[in-house]
Amino acid sequence: MSAQTATRAQPAGRSLPSTANLALRRTWIELLAFLREREAVIFILAYPLIMMAIFSTVFGQEEQGSAAGSVPYAQYFLPGMVATGVMLTSFQNLAISITVERDDGTLKRLRATPLPATSYFLGKVGQVLIVTTVQTAALLVLSATAFDVPMPSTASAWATFAWVFVLGTATGSVLGVAFSSVPRSGKSVTAVVTPIVLVLQFISGVFFAFFALPSWMQQVASLFPLKWLAQGMRSVFLPPEAVVLEVGGSWQHGATAAVLGAWLVVGLVVGVRTFRWRRRDDG
């Protein structure tokens, strides 16, 4: 389906669809385009599930923590996988896809249609929300059924999950749009974006217990949203007594909201100021 399908000229005497209506149509187009890219489906949608299965199978009998508070490896690993899934689907996916669309002229053609820019960006965010929701649901089902990871049993825990999930997804999406202006071309975007995401995964408590990392690494990770997203998810999926494993001695929900919110604002400001619809060599 072409980009112009959602913005086809209307018959005389009829107004164009609303911005919200166009955003819904654009969301469908973006979702179809994502699913047609096998590499994206495997390395973004399925990646957290694959890693969860591998690591939990290999280290499933180990426990993370100390006598003061310990949890099975799979249970400790799950929050990090949820967090990294959100970042992959939002930040990495959008940073790469938008850069490629700019490079192949898709953005330039879209800009020449009646499609409002707001509908285009809402379509991207809508696609991210759908994919992330499906991905996270599949990850929770896999963890609960294959590795006996207990799910939250209180409404407050699920409420925490909801706001951390939504805020983290929004922040990752906005940052992905903003970062899409950094790579010089579609050919180089993967080489630019992927190492950043990998480094953040290793220092943010995704693959390793955050409390076991060197203090300087913890301080660096605390500057970026993935660490706080993973910590927020740990507060949902780990038992209350596991709070002693946190570096700050608490779940720090206020700090999680503040850091993710600050990055959301930074992404919005930078994105508005730097977003380009054309390649650098196209004027």
TrEMBL record:
<dbReference type="GO" id="GO:0140359">
    <property type="term" value="F:ABC-type transporter activity"/>
</dbReference>
<feature type="transmembrane region" description="Helical">
    <location>
        <begin position="80"/>
        <end position="100"/>
    </location>
</feature>
<feature type="transmembrane region" description="Helical">
    <location>
        <begin position="255"/>
        <end position="275"/>
    </location>
</feature>
<dbReference type="GO" id="GO:0046677">
    <property type="term" value="P:response to antibiotic"/>
</dbReference>
<keyword id="KW-0046">Antibiotic resistance</keyword>
<keyword id="KW-1133">Transmembrane helix</keyword>
<dbReference type="GO" id="GO:0043190">
    <property type="term" value="C:ATP-binding cassette (ABC) transporter complex"/>
</dbReference>
<keyword id="KW-1003">Cell membrane</keyword>
<feature type="transmembrane region" description="Helical">
    <location>
        <begin position="157"/>
        <end position="179"/>
    </location>
</feature>
<feature type="domain" description="ABC transmembrane type-2">
    <location>
        <begin position="39"/>
        <end position="278"/>
    </location>
</feature>
<dbReference type="Pfam" id="PF01061">
    <property type="entry name" value="ABC2_membrane"/>
</dbReference>
<dbReference type="InterPro" id="IPR051784">
    <property type="entry name" value="Nod_factor_ABC_transporter"/>
</dbReference>
<feature type="transmembrane region" description="Helical">
    <location>
        <begin position="191"/>
        <end position="213"/>
    </location>
</feature>
<feature type="transmembrane region" description="Helical">
    <location>
        <begin position="121"/>
        <end position="145"/>
    </location>
</feature>
<protein>
    <recommendedName>
        <fullName>Transport permease protein</fullName>
    </recommendedName>
</protein>
<comment type="similarity">
    <text>Belongs to the ABC-2 integral membrane protein family.</text>
</comment>
<keyword id="KW-0812">Transmembrane</keyword>
<dbReference type="InterPro" id="IPR013525">
    <property type="entry name" value="ABC2_TM"/>
</dbReference>
<keyword id="KW-0472">Membrane</keyword>
<keyword id="KW-0813">Transport</keyword>
<dbReference type="InterPro" id="IPR000412">
    <property type="entry name" value="ABC_2_transport"/>
</dbReference>
<feature type="transmembrane region" description="Helical">
    <location>
        <begin position="40"/>
        <end position="60"/>
    </location>
</feature>
<dbReference type="InterPro" id="IPR047817">
    <property type="entry name" value="ABC2_TM_bact-type"/>
</dbReference>
